[in-house]
Amino acid sequence: MIKINHSNVNIFKIILNIIKNSVILLKIIDFTVIMLKEDILWGYGMVKKSIIVIMSIFFSLTLFPVKEVKAENSDQIKNQIENNQDKIDGLNNQKNKLNQEKKSNESELDKLQETIDEKNKELLSSQQNVSKYQKEIDALQADINSVQAELDSLEKDIKDKEQEIIKKEKDREEKEELLGKRLRSIYKTSYEEELIVMLLNSRSFGDFISKMSMVSRVIKTDKGMIEEVKKAKKEVEEGKASLEKKVSYLNTEKNQIALMQEDVKASQKSYIEEQNKINAQVSSLKTLESQKQGVINNIASKEQQLQGEIEDLNSYNKDLQNQLDQIFKDINNNNNNSNNGGQSNNSGSESFIRPSTGRVTSVYGARVNPVTGVNGFHTGIDLGAPMGAPIKASKSGKVVTASYISGYGNTVILDHGSGIQTLYAHSSSLAVSVGQTVSQGQVIAYVGSTGNSTGPHLHFEIRVNGQHQNPTNYLSF
Predict the structure, then answer these.
(1) Which of 43, 89, 116, 309 is most buried (most C-beta within 10 Å)?
(2) What's the pLDDT at 220?
(3) CA distances from 44 to 39, 51, 110, 455, 467 (A)
(4) Can you state the angle between helices 6-37 and 43-62, rounded to 10 degrees?
(5) Residue 397 and residue 422: Cα distance in Å, rounded?
(6) pLDDT at residue 78 greater than cutoff 50
(7) Residue ranges of the domains in the chain?
(8) How much of the chain, in percent, has pLDDT values that exceed 70?
């Protein structure tokens, strides 16, 4: 039969506690993965904080010995609850600011909408102008086409008229030449002499009459030729005058086409300018709509993020409070057992000494956390010291914690009896182990910057019955 002593029971409790909390850790990791997939945790910073929270929960639940670390676990959970409540208050303040920002953004959105409406009106006006210019261009082009067709026809008429004038001019010249010959012949021979010659040469009176008839026809032909020459000359002159008019009209029409083409160019230029204006307005509208949607999405994202963080912290605080209640119950039971056993770790009236050299860089009380940037409460003091400087026990006592604690880094907690403990955090390395008894001034660790820290320093706390105290009330500086 295996003998089960009190120490074995404690070890068994530790194992059960680790198994239970490992299950909790897996659930938290699953929850975080879901949040990451849903884009609830944005950016590296938020992911890092989430991982810190997860590891804080896990290590705070698993790395403390069940019996000897109950007190500091309760302090840590109370501090965590207080810090979480401060965070919740801070998040609620951020939420109130977000509501104010939302109201301010609503005004901005109204202005954006007014600008969008104005841009839409300008866009409509530009589109109407483009339509007007297009109609003007189409009408002008139709006029140009009509005038051009008329010009083409007129140019053909002018060419035909020029050929006709050339032909008539040639005919007139031929007739004038023939008429000239006839006139010169008549001038050389008188009419009476011509009659006597015809009479003498006639074989008979009938022959004479026939010749007289022929002469009469010649005279009539000569008169007709004279009239034709006059008519041809007149037609040539009229044709030239008509041709000059048509040429003048043609030049006028060409000038009109040139002017219309200039109008078309001007309208096309205006058309292009309006089209470019439309493109710019469309681009501007898209930008404004994008800005508007960006403001809306930004507010919605912030609201969702803040609400999620508040709900997570409230849920986390509830779990921590339940754990704290159980720890207090276990501490009371352990204290009763210790008192019944007659054991005590009271260091008497021994006073506290400075655990490290260096000036106080952060006092006890309310402050903005230098790591998270969140308003909170500093439960101890920070002593600035170089990396690796020795950390000494402020008072004689027993080591109840010598391990890495999430947030605190490498930490030593000494129990001085009568409900008094001291805490030394952010060490680079530890020089003691759990269960060891140390004397006042003994080196227990070395200054570092582990855990949530911005540089090498010692975070020092004094606890009385689990409540953090102002160390300056116990130390002389």
Answers:
(1) 309
(2) 74
(3) 12, 10, 34, 21, 35
(4) 160
(5) 9
(6) yes
(7) 345-477
(8) 68
Assign 74 a pLDDT band (cuts: 50, 70, 90). Answer: low
> Within the chain, how many helices (H) and strands (E) appear?
5, 12
Position of tokens 């402020």?
394
357-388 pLDDT, tens digit per residue, is: 889 999 999 888 776 677 888 999 999 999 99
Query: Is the Cβ–Cβ distance between 55 and 406 less than 8 Å?
Result: yes
- Tell me how far apart the alpha carbons of residues 402 and 404 are, in angstroms, rounded to a whole number: 7
Quote the CA–CA distance of 3 and 8 in Å, as a whole number.
Answer: 9
* CA dist., res. 17 & res. 67, Å (int): 12
Task: Give 472's DSSP letter.
Answer: G
Cα–Cα dist 431/413, whole Å: 12
Lowest mean pLDDT among 7-11, 355-359, 450-454: 7-11
Residues 6+ positions from 256 with CB-CB distance below 8 Å:
147
Measured between its terminal Cα atoms, the distance across the chain in Å is 59
Residue 181 has pLDDT above 60, yes or no: yes
Q: What is the pTM (predicted TM-score) of this model?
A: 0.37
At residue 382, the 3 state secondary structure works out as: strand
Helix (H) or strand (E) holding 30: helix 6-37
d(CA 149, CA 252): 14
CB 389 within 8 A of CB 407: no
Tokens 């896990």 appear where?
58
Query: What CA–CA distance (Å, rounded) separates 306 from 99?
Result: 12
435 and 399 in contact (C-beta within 8 Å)? yes
Tokens 């952060």: give the residue: 362
Under DSSP, is residue 357 helix (H, G, I), strand (E, B) or coil?
Answer: coil
- DSSP bridge pairs for 338: none
What is the average per-residue pLDDT within 241-260?
86
Q: Quick one: which of 21, 58, 94 has its CA closest to 407?
A: 58
Phi/psi-derived region of residue 406, left when phi > 0, alpha when psi is between -120 and 50, beta in every other case: beta
Better-predicted residue by pLDDT, 99 or 287: 287
CATH of 345-477, one of 2.70.70.10, 3.40.50.720, 2.40.50.140, 3.40.50.620: 2.70.70.10
Q: Which of 382, 380, 383 is nearest to 364 (CA)?
A: 380
Measured between alpha carbons, how far is 371 from 383 in angstroms, rounded to an integer? 17
- The three-state secondary structure class of 207 is helix
